[in-house]
Amino acid sequence: MEDKYAGLKLGNQLCFPLYACSREIVKKYKPYLDELDLTYTQYITMLVLWEHGQINVKELGECLYLDSGTLTPLLKKLETKGWVTRQRAKEDERVLIVTLTEKGKKLRDQAAEVPAKMSCCVKLTPEESRTLYTLLYKMLGDA
Amino acid sequence: MEDKYAGLKLGNQLCFPLYACSREIVKKYKPYLDELDLTYTQYITMLVLWEHGQINVKELGECLYLDSGTLTPLLKKLETKGWVTRQRAKEDERVLIVTLTEKGKKLRDQAAEVPAKMSCCVKLTPEESRTLYTLLYKMLGDA
DNA sequence: TAAAACAAAATTGCACGCAATACAATTGCC
DNA sequence: GGCAATTGTATTGCGTGCAATTTTGTTTTA
Fold first, then answer.
1. Which residue is nearest to nucleotide D17 (CA to C1')?
2. Which candidate from A8, A124, A138 shows the least CB-CB separation from B135?
3. pLDDT for the residue numbered A141
4. What are the residues with a C-beta under 7 Å from any atom of nucleic chain C?
5. C-beta atoms surrounding B28 within 10 Å
6. Low-confidence residues in chain B, pLDDT < 70
7. Contact B128/A at CB under 8 A
8. pLDDT of residue A122
9. DSSP code string of B30-46
10. Which of its termini does chain A have fewer beta carbons within 10 Å around, N or C?
């Protein structure tokens, strides 16, 4: 006798632990990011900027899977805090270029400790972490 | 020569693909859930109710890793739509019991097709899905 | 038993996410 | 050149998430 509702059980969902895990981990970042006056979304935005120094909103959105509705107000906050500047590209006025300031670059040194602190919170073996990483990017790649 | 900032690369974060994947999958649910007039969070709430019929806010929050700040307004919306009722427990007036209505129970039949529709979107093999599921719950368990 | 401690929801305030829309600049096409 | 289609951001509105606080009800304890 099949349960026609089996697919609707919370325990049979793949999406739910993904959703719950994501929020739980972000929550664990909070105390460390609070020290830097960064939210999680602002943090991953800064990660991109620390790597690239300069990037426009469209490319940033592609990196982070976020759109201008999320990024525009967020980038204005980062600008207010003095970590980035926002200016239009001369060759195409539609494009907004986000650039790290000196102050923003310095923040990187404080942030450098965050990943090590976080790694203690994740109770997976290095191999499990790699497997998880690979599977997640496989899903994302097909998204 | 080590890169002291290697840990800060977006590509070296385990959290980021988790966060991005979660949002991408929820986005894929949207067209199917729109047909049912449900958001994703409302959907997983209904999953719990379809399984249990009745549950209080605290227990619901433990199931979903959500607190009353999120659940209270959400449950009021489900009540407005006529899918659940909200009433205080007689033995302890602090406890609010959420109960499925007949209309709410009927919604389950429409929702029954959602998991099958979604499974087409996930490009992982059954084995990969199981591995991912196990790893995510391992992380959640230690959370 | 009255006050203190505790517990469950609700409220408040802030920061996303994201769909939908608006707007301005650029490109393509005739 | 001129106009339509396209592109890149910004804006708006709604629904979360969550920390912090408040409210209401219950239990513990002096």
1. B70
2. A124
3. 85
4. A 26, 39-42, 65-70, 73-74, 77, 91-94; B 23-24, 26-27, 30, 56-58, 61, 67-69, 71-73, 75, 86, 92, 94-96
5. 18
6. 1-2, 142-143
7. yes
8. 86
9. HHHHHHTT--HHHHHHH
10. N
Q: Which residue has the tokens 């019929």?
A: B53
Task: Give buried/exposed letters for A68-92 (b at 16+ CB in 10 A, else e).
Answer: eeebeebbeebeeeebbeeeeeeee
Partners of residue B115 in chain A, C-beta under 8 Å: 7-8, 12-13
Q: Residue A44 in contact with residue A126, Cβ under 8 Å?
A: no
| pTM, two decimal places | 0.94
pLDDT (0 to 100) of residue B143:
55
Tokens of B99: 């109960």
E-strand ranges in chain A read: 54-56, 84-88, 96-100
For B40, the token pair is 């994703």
User: Phi-psi category of A37—alpha, beta or left, where left has phi over 0 and alpha has psi -120 to 50?
Assistant: left
CA of A96 to C1' of C27 (A): 18
Each residue's pLDDT expressed in tens, for chain A with a length of 143 residues: 668 889 999 999 999 999 999 999 999 999 999 999 999 999 999 999 999 999 999 999 999 999 999 999 999 999 999 999 999 999 999 999 999 999 999 999 999 999 999 988 888 999 999 999 999 999 998 65
Inter-chain CB proximity B140 and A12 less than 8 Å:
no
**Quick one: pLDDT at residue B140?**
93
How distant is C1' of D11 from CA of B56, in Å?
A: 39
Report CA B89 to chain centroid distance, whole Å: 25
Q: How many CB atoms lie within 10 A of CB A103?
A: 11
